[in-house]
Amino acid sequence: MDDQGGDSVSVWRVGRSARVAGFVIPGVVGVKAFIGWAGWFSSPEVDGARSAGLWTGLAVGATLFFWWAILRVRLQVGPDGIVAVNPWGTHRLGLDEVASVRLGAWGAEFHHRDGFKTTAYALSELASGTSQEDRFAELLAVLEAEPTRSPRDA
User: Fold this and answer.
1) How far is the C-alpha of 104 from the C-alpha of 113, rounded, in Å?
2) Separation between Cα atoms, residue 66 and residue 63, nearest integer Å
3) pTM exceeds 0.90 for this model
């Protein structure tokens, strides 16, 4: 974003293999549904419509699930703060609200000054497909480069 005159924002998403699966699996099921409807159109029968309807429902369900659980999950760090988009909601934190950052089982854990914590699932090992420690080191480097503060686990 520096090229456009804006502030620099670092973004992490789930790993490439999980994102590819998030597109490919619903796509394959969608193609199967399309083939089912094409077959029903050429020779309309109740069984053909039932099968095509089932595959259509599976395609819609798979698309929504992968979008919700994998494709929309991200962690964004910039001068305005931290935005963690997780399957269960979006959390916005100011950099001054973070007391420490740790690597947890489900991703980076941002511990607030008031005792609460926010987990960024985009850095979880399950979702990334890459080394969790490498991605966490990148996060710490970005947080330390922010001019306002650098939360670090003591």
Assistant:
1) 18
2) 5
3) no
Q: Which two tokens stand for residue 97?
A: 């609200």
Taking only the tens place, the pLDDT of each residue in 77-114 is: 888 888 988 888 899 988 888 888 888 878 888 999 89
Distance (Å, whole) CA 89 – CA 106: 15
User: Is the Cβ–Cβ distance between 38 and 46 less than 8 Å?
Assistant: no
Give the whole-angstrom CA distance, residue 25 versus residue 128: 18
Amino acid at 91: H
In three state form, how does the secondary structure of the chain look? Answer: CHHHCCCCCEEEECCHHHHHHHHHHHHHHHHHHHHHHHHHHHCCCHHHHHHHHHHHHHHHHHHHHHHHHHHCCEEEEECCEEEEEECCEEEEECHHHEEEEEEECCEEEEEECCCCEEEEHHHCHHHHCCCHHHHHHHHHHHHHHCCCCCCCCC
Task: Compute the half-sphere exposure of residue 41: CA atoms within 13 Å on the CB side of its CA.
Answer: 6
